């Protein structure tokens, strides 16, 4: 009999795979065979652990040892030291940034202490390519319970009472959405899973699909049962090859077990799921555009109503939910609406997954109860700002959201509080900025994104955003005026009010919220041609300090445009007309004689 | 694979699959289950700690006791190898010495199942040893 004494969990998410975690798995298995341990130790490729900053992650079970940044060449040491001799490998342990001590048990890491994982419950725990591990963790039990004991109305009622709201950004009550779709009479209906995750820096949907695809398939089947649909479609971007691969395997296995397909669990209910690939257009995350794209048309939004619940895919009633929303459903049915609604704030129940990105120590994926403050998320879980710099702001909700500052840092995060603060939940991307980030340049970055991603159907979004971007560009070049700041603000309001879909209606948000919170920075750019953060290159001047320059000519030789003039052993000077502000001279100068202002 | 037809079938399948996952489930909440640490330094291994550990892992599984069995380094009771530390949920750790499979069987049956203390406990409370010891 095989006695498994250890499970070695290796993260197989996209981030860790990019750092060769799949080769680490191969090497671990080779080492096990070499040491005749293959019957005692099992290597399991799991989904994302969330601690992407320090990937690839390896967790040794049962002692919960958490190794970070493990390379394929560490396999031998892990087997010989940890598995055979029982000695933890100090250099691979996670080092706590405050105490500077290695933490040997993941339970003691600040990163995990404040998290509550519902949607991510199986990510980093099960092998997503093995339906057995999902079933062992109650996979498909909620579907069976719904089919055998509950009936569609009771399920919808349960979801409604749980208070679950759409996690894709809108925050619409999920139970109500299902009820509307159920009440629309039609011979054919569709369930669509929106996996077109487009916000820069957000990767929660990808991680759920990579780490626990069965949860999403199960929830889609439950939804189909409730609204009377037999067809499920997952709209996923083609840039997510690993998620697509794991979904395909999951669908295949679920069919084999009779958990998808004809007559599921002998209930008479049939449901199957197909994949549809998106080409990575941001606007296709908007549900009407998504449906058009699935129909093979241009990914352009249309005016609502009619809502997809009345006329959606192929003009049939269609229920569209986001990946994370679906991932919550099975747990709600198994643990009950009361349990779910006991977590979170008054109007936002449950948890939310956030993708931490930007100038934060622990870049990664976390899940916290609604009502957790930004301070807890950024400083306790996220480990604070990189390099001990000062926190300046955090962009929530991606390019559609707003920028929150120091004064918002203690508000409990939920749908309504974020809107009241001038931002939004969005899909849960948190991009953290420090004192070196220029808010005007940041707005310009997001506008560049929306200009690129605008489908071009309506004038305010197509033309207006382009104009916004041009004004922002002029501000960062120091060629703008106070009057233009007013134009900028007015134009923002017009675009918000008149755009056809969510993309245009929210695209000015980064500008509006930074103008609200960092107006002095805009004024500084316009009046004094100054960028405090030192980001806007056109406003920077390099000059040579008279006292320090020894005339070594090193800077003149490295300058790519020959902007530096001066004789040997004489003071050099930079011709501002020619200088392209590349900074090469600063790096070269040994005497710190080149100064930036 | 035959298709699953009822909730009961699914439950049965789940329970049979769960035994393979128990090692992971238990390690999520080690304080809720029996924790066993086998000292596996060179002296422990040469006295048969590996057989003891194998015995615990396979027998606890067979006797359906939820437990986390891990190995540690030297516990400093070299005269009494193999040594095994057992922590029942919510209780102080107890260290047993000279644990061969026969002794291990006794530990499972008497101490783990019924909570009865048996011979072979290393008398000094191991916390005090840690406190008095100065390891530099």
Strand content range of chain A = 5-15%
Shape of chain B: elongated
What ranges of chain A have pLDDT less than 50 throughout 5 or more consecutive residues?
Answer: none
* Fourth-tier CATH superfamily name of the largest domain in chain A: NADH-ubiquinone oxidoreductase 51kDa subunit
CATH architecture of the largest domain in chain A, by name, is 3-Layer(aba) Sandwich
Shape call of chain A:
globular
The radius of gyration over CA of chain B amounts to 18 Å
Describe the protein.
Chain A is of the alpha/beta class and 597 residues long. Chain A has five domains: 6-110, Glutaredoxin; 131-340, Rossmann fold; 351-434, Ubiquitin-like (UB roll) (Roll); 439-528, Up-down Bundle (de novo design (two linked rop proteins)), CATH 1.20.1440.230; 541-596, Alpha-Beta Plaits (2-Layer Sandwich), CATH 3.30.70.20. Helices cover 39% and strands 15% of the residues of chain A. In chain A, strands 12-11-15-13-14 form a five-stranded mixed beta sheet, with helices on both faces. In chain A, strand 3 (58-61) and strand 4 form a beta hairpin. The model of chain A has no long low-confidence stretch (mean pLDDT 92). With 136 residues, chain B is α+β, with helices and mostly antiparallel strands. Chain B starts with 6 loop residues before the first helix and ends with a helix.
Task: Give a summary of the structure in a few sentences.
The complex is a heterodimer of chains A (597) and B (136). Helix content of chain A is 39%, strand content 15%. With 597 residues, chain A is an alpha/beta fold.
Strand-helix topology:
The complex is a heterodimer of chains A (597) and B (136).
Chain A: E1 6-11, H1 14-18, H2 21-34, E2 41-46, E3 58-61, E4 65-67, H3 75-85, E5 94-95, E6 102-103, H4 110-113, H5 131-136, H6 141-150, H7 152-162, H8 174-183, E7 190-195, H9 204-211, H10 213-227, E8 231-237, H11 241-256, E9 272-278, H12 287-294, E10 318-322, H13 323-335, H14 337-341, E11 351-358, E12 364-369, H15 374-381, E13 391-396, E14 402-405, H16 415-420, E15 429-434, H17 439-453, H18 459-477, H19 482-498, H20 502-506, H21 509-517, H22 519-528, E16 542-544, H23 554-558, E17 564-565, E18 573-574, H24 584-588, E19 594-596
Chain B: H1 7-28, E1 34-39, H2 42-46, H3 49-62, E2 67-72, E3 84-87, E4 94-96, H4 101-114, H5 126-132
Parallel strand pairs in B: 1-2
Antiparallel strand pairs in B: 1-3, 3-4
């Amino acid at each position: 009999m095989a006695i498994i004494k250890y499970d070695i969990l290796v993260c197989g998410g996209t981030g860790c795979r990019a750092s060769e975690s799949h080769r680490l798995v191969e090497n671990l298995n080779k080492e096990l065979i070499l040491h005749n341990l293959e019957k005692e130790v099992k290597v399991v490729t799991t989904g994302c652990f969330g601690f992407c900053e320090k990937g690839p992650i390896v967790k040794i079970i049962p002692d919960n040892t958490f190794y970070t940044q493990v390379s394929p060449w560490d396999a031998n040491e892990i087997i010989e030291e940890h598995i055979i001799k029982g000695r933890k490998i100090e250099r691979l342990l996670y080092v706590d940034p405050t105490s500077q001590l290695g933490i040997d048990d993941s339970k003691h890491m600040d990163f995990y202490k404040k998290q509550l994982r519902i949607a991510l419950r199986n990510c980093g725990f099960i092998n997503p390519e093995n339906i057995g591990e999902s079933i062992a963790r109650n996979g498909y039990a909620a579907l069976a319970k719904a089919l055998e004991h509950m009936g569609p109305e009771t399920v919808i009622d349960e979801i409604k009472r749980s208070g679950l709201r759409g996690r894709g950004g809108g925050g619409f009550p999920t139970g109500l959405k299902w009820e509307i779709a159920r009440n629309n009479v039609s011979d054919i209906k569709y369930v669509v899973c929106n996996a077109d995750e487009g916000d820069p820096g957000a990767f929660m949907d990808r991680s759920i699909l990579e780490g626990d695809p069965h949860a999403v398939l199960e929830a889609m089947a439950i939804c189909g049962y409730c609204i009377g649909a037999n067809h499920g479609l997952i709209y996923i971007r083609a840039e997510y090859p690993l998620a697509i691969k794991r979904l395909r395997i999951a669908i295949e296995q679920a069919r084999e077990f009779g958990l998808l397909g004809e007559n599921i669990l002998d209930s008479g209910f049939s449901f199957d799921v197909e994949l549809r690939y998106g080409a990575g257009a941001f606007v296709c995350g908007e549900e009407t555009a998504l449906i058009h794209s699935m129909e093979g048309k241009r990914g352009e939004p249309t005016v609502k109503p009619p809502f997809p619940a009345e006329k959606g895919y192929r003009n049939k009633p269609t229920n569209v939910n986001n990946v994370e929303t679906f991932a919550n459903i099975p747990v709600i049915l198994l643990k009950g609406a009361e349990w779910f609604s006991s977590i979170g704030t008054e109007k936002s129940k449950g948890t939310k997954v956030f993708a931490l990105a930007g100038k934060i120590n622990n870049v990664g994926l976390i899940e916290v109860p609604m009502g957790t403050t930004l301070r807890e998320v950024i400083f306790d879980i996220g480990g604070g700002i990189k390099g001990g710099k000062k926190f300046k702001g955090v962009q929530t909700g991606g390019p559609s959201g707003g920028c929150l500052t120091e004064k918002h840092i203690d508000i409990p995060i939920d749908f309504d509080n974020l809107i009241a603060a001038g931002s939004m939940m969005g899909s849960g991307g948190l991009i953290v900025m420090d004192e070196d980030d220029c808010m005007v340049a940041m707005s310009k970055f997001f506008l560049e994104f929306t200009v690129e991603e605008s489908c071009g159907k309506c004038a305010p979004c197509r033309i207006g955003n382009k104009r916004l971007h041009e004004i922002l560009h002029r501000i960062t070049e120091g060629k703008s005026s106070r009057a233009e700041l007013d134009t900028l603000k007015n134009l923002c309001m017009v675009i918000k009010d008149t755009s056809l879909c969510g993309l245009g209606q929210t695209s000015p948000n980064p500008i509006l919220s930074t103008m609200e919170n960092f107006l002095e920075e805009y004024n500084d750019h316009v009046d004094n041609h100054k960028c405090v953060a030192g980001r806007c290159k056109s406003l920077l001047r390099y000059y040579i300090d008279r006292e320090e320059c020894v005339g070594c000519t090193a800077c003149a030789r490295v300058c790519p445009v020959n902007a530096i003039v001066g004789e040997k052993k004489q003071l050099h000077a930079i011709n501002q007309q020619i200088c392209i502000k590349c900074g090469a001279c600063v790096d070269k100068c040994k005497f710190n004689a080149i100064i930036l202002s | 694979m035959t298709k699953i037809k009822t909730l009961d079938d699914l439950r049965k399948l789940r329970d049979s699959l769960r035994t393979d996952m128990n090692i992971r489930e238990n390690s999520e909440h080690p304080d809720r289950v029996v924790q066993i640490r086998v000292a596996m330094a060179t002296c422990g291994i040469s006295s048969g700690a590996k057989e003891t550990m194998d015995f615990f892992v396979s027998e606890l599984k067979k006797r359906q006791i939820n437990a986390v069995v891990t190995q540690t380094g030297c516990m400093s009771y070299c005269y009494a190898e193999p040594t095994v530390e057992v922590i029942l949920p919510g209780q102080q750790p107890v260290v047993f010495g000279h644990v061969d499979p026969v002794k291990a069987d006794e530990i499972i049956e008497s101490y783990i199942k019924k909570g009865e203390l048996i011979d072979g406990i290393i008398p000094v409370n191991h916390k005090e040893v840690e406190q008095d010891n100065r390891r530099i």
